[in-house]
Design brief:
The protein has 377 residues and is an alpha/beta fold. It has nine helices and 25 strands. The relative contact order is 0.16.
Length: 377
């Protein structure tokens, strides 16, 4: 019997679990190590913040999935890998040996420059801590009757979070003041093309989000910008760039220049044939691409196929990530902006499209709910 350890319940591993639930792999014992009993889907988080979804609509429950897949679930975090000894270590003190290891633990947010902020600092990851922090901040704002929020990060996530926050705080506080600033570094939406950046800038202005160019550091009552300007804030949401977990550096696995696990065709580690990785934790050295959920989702089926093939000693299936991806950015009220290969368009139809895609995505992992519905019928 070979042991496959799945580290992290990320997008690609959800697909491995549903593949196993459809048909188990003979001769393979599977263990999932992940710190929470659910996987919150980041694509729906801005819609949840804005008040359009309940949290349970945006989260896949892992326990019913692992039960259906015949997988042992260890609710814990990986804190170390000894690739030479084929061992992982968990925060709870377990050492788990593996024959095959697959990593889908995502990435962290670099908040080092914001640590000195006297305002409530809310890093977007881990999402579990973020959702608890956002709920607490909404309640505190309701009691104060005002809000002064800053979002740091000019990428797609920062834009969506700022617009969702502005919309929700406006709903919550009515005529009370709700100031939202978005600090974007050198430019808004780098890498998305001028048409979408212009459209997003107009939407931010129309919704009352103040866009601030510059780099921010935390200070006693908010943020200090690199040109000396100050932004007073009672909450700072950090949607700054991604960075790898620090324990990867000591794992013995070959890393890409960005510090994430270097993988090649088939999502296999370039240094250790028994190790695979997908999603934000992996960097394809042969076909570099952005760290985004689209790539993590698309890698899922090939990862599942290749883990099964590796366990059976069969050749791996090659996989070429797509070059372009569709982005649908939620913009606060039930509207969205579509970005595809430099083209941009916006409207309520784009929100309905995004909502349909996201709900359909989540429905695949609704194993527990469909069981519950069947038993009620
Ligand atoms: C607000 C927001 C909106 C976004 N919207 C989009 C979008 O619309 N489209 C898009 O393409 N991308 C979007 N992204 C980016 C997207 O979220 C990430 O690229 C995607 O989540 C990466 O998926 P993943 O599977 O690599 O990791 P994750 O989704 O982060 O999953 C990682 C999993 O590993 C677990 N884990 C973490 N650490 C450990 C550990 N030490 N040990 C074990 N388990 C661990 C976590 O609990 C989690 O289950 C958005 C990001 C944010 C923040």
């Amino acid at each position: 019997m070979k042991r496959l350890v799945l580290a992290g319940g990320g997008h690609a591993h959800l697909n491995v679990l549903t593949t196993l639930a459809a048909r188990r792999w003979p001769g393979v014992e599977v263990v999932l190590v992940s710190p929470y009993p659910r996987q919150i889907y980041s694509g729906m988080v801005p819609g949840w913040m804005a008040g359009h979804y309940r949290l349970d609509q945006c989260a896949a429950r892992l326990e019913p999935l692992v039960a259906a897949a015949g997988v042992r679930f260890v609710e814990d975090s990986v804190v170390g890998i000894e690739a030479g000894a084929r061992l992982i270590h968990t925060a709870g003190g377990e050492a788990i040996a593996y024959d095959l290891l697959s990593l889908d633990v995502g990435a962290r947010v670099d908040t080092s420059c914001l640590a000195a902020s006297g305002a409530t600092l809310l890093p977007i990851r881990p999402l579990e801590a973020f959702v608890a922090g956002w709920e607490a901040y909404l309640e505190a704002s309701r009691q104060r009757g005002r809000a002064r929020l800053a979002v740091v990060g000019g990428g797609a996530a920062g834009v969506e979070l700022a617009l969702a926050a502005r919309y929700r705080l406006g709903q919550l506080l009515g005529d009370g003041p709700a100031a939202v600033s978005l600090v974007v570094g050198s430019a808004l939406l780098p890498g998305h093309g001028p048409a979408i950046a212009r459209r997003v800038a107009a939407t931010l202005a129309g919704q009352g989000v103040t866009v601030v160019a510059g780099y921010a550091a935390g200070d006693a009552d908010g943020l200090l910008l690199d040109d000396g300007r100050h932004i007073a804030a009672d909450c700072v949401i950090a949607a700054t760039g991604v960075q790898p977990a620090p324990w990867l550096a000591a794992s013995g696995l070959a890393l890409a220049p960005d510090g994430f696990i270097a993988v090649g065709d088939g999502q296999q580690s370039v240094s250790h044939r028994e190790v695979f990785a997908a999603g934000d934790v992996a960097s394809r050295v042969d076909a570099p691409h952005a760290k985004s959920g689209v790539y993590a989702v698309r890698a899922g089926p090939v990862l599942a196929a290749n883990l099964q093939r590796a366990a059976a000693g069969q050749p791996l299936q090659p996989y070429r990530p797509q070059r372009r991806s569709l982005y649908l950015l939620a913009t606060g009220p039930k509207r969205a902006i579509m970005s595809w290969g430099g083209l941009a368009a916006a409207g309520a139809w784009a929100w309905r499209w995004k909502d349909w895609i996201d709900r359909r995505f989540m429905a695949q992992y609704d194993v527990g709910m469909s069981h519950a519905k069947e038993s009620q019928a």
